[in-house]
Amino acid sequence: MILIADGGSTKADWILLDKEGNQVFKTRTEGLNPEILSADLLKVRIQANEEITSHKDKVTEVYFYGAGCGTKRLTSLLKSIFESFFKNAEIVVKEDTFAAVYAVTTKPGIVCILGTGSNSCYFDGKNVDVRVPSLGYILMDEASGNYFGKKLIRDYYYDKMPKSIAKLFEKQFDLDADVIKRNIYKEENPNAYLAHFAEFIFKNDRTPYFNKVLQKGIKEFFVNRILPYTESTQVPVHFVGSIAFFSQDIINDVARYYMVEIGKIIRRPIDGLIEYHREKIKLEKI
Q1: Residues 6+ apart with CB under 8 A from 109
Q2: Where do you find CATH 3.30.420.40 in the chain?
Q3: Which CATH architecture is the domain 105-266 placed in?
Q4: CB–CB of 143/221 below 8 Å?
Q5: pLDDT tens-digit series, residues 168-226
Q6: If you compute the radius of gyration of the chain from its CA atoms, what whole number of angstroms results?
């Protein structure tokens, strides 16, 4: 059996396929980002899922595509955890950009992730090229959920948020300074914590303020993560992730400004991953 996972910082989607490519189950765990979680917590989150645990000894292949898997050290860490859990399986761990690519295209293009975090890569039709490694939610991650979450909190505290929106913000979140600082500096998953504030933009009527916030972040992402690719004027640019999915209008506006062609924009890559691996199963049988 083949176990496939798209692992973000907030959540991880898992699909188990039998040897014919039929779906056995689809489930979800909490995020499994090795960049921000301890090895012990990563183990706990995997073991907590009953469906995965009950099938672990039947799994022969694991393909995990995850946030925070962009360096050899972190990839090796997660691989060793999986090897100790899935005793009979061959383990493959790759960065989440590979999942994004496999989900949206088989042809050359630039593929971007805008979810809890953000990233981009160039796909030449065969190889995935991440030319600028991501340094995570503190230094990079333009236009991500945690980027917009930080922006909203700063605007609220600097009194730059329109009064009517600030009152609504107060009602929906605990904005006590001690609570915010504890979650950012003391608790696990600070990037996911920040990203949950970004939901505020999409769960309320889109106002000029929200549009301005989105446009600024997405422009920064284009400037830093798309335009440096010389291929950006020659191939379509695809997007994966919830932030991208709910910001399609702004993405298309910014793309027109920079004369970039937009390809697919999808919310979750897991369905595309299923088809990619089903095709692999078919080819292996030929």
Answers
A1: 122, 123, 235, 236, 237, 238, 263
A2: 2-101+269-285, 105-266
A3: 2-Layer Sandwich (3.30)
A4: yes
A5: 999 999 999 999 999 999 988 899 999 999 999 999 999 999 999 999 999 999 999 99
A6: 19
Q: Which residues contact 26 (CB under 8 A, 6 or more apart)?
A: 13, 14, 15, 16, 270
Conformational region of residue 65, where left means phi above 0, alpha means psi within -120 to 50, and beta covers everything else: beta
Contact by Cβ (8 Å): 274, 4: yes
HEC string of the chain equals: CEEEEEECCCEEEEEEECCCCCEEEEEEEECCCCCCCCHHHHHHHHHCCHHHHHHHHHCCEEEEEECCCCCHHHHHHHHHHHHHHCCCCEEEEEEHHHHHHHHHCCCCEEEEEECCCEEEEEECCCCEECCCCCCHHHHCCCCCHHHHHHHHHHHHHCCCCCHHHHHHHHHHCCCCHHHHHHHHHCCCCHHHHHHHHHHHHHCCCCCHHHHHHHHHHHHHHHHHHHCCCHHHHCCCEEEECHHHHHCHHHHHHHHHHCCCCEEEEECCCHHHHHHHHHHHHHHHHC
Closest C-alpha to 270, from 34, 12, 47: 12
Tokens 């506006």 belong to which residue? 253
Q: Which residues pair with 59 in a beta bridge?
A: none
The topology under which CATH files domain 2-101+269-285 is Nucleotidyltransferase; domain 5 (3.30.420)
Q: Residue written as tokens 């798309």?
A: 226
What are the tens digits of pLDDT across the range 71-82? 889 999 999 999
> How far is it, in rounded angstroms, from Cα 30 to Cα 278?
25
Pick left, alpha or beta for residue 159 (phi over 0 → left; psi -120 to 50 → alpha; otherwise beta).
left
pTM for the complete prediction? 0.83
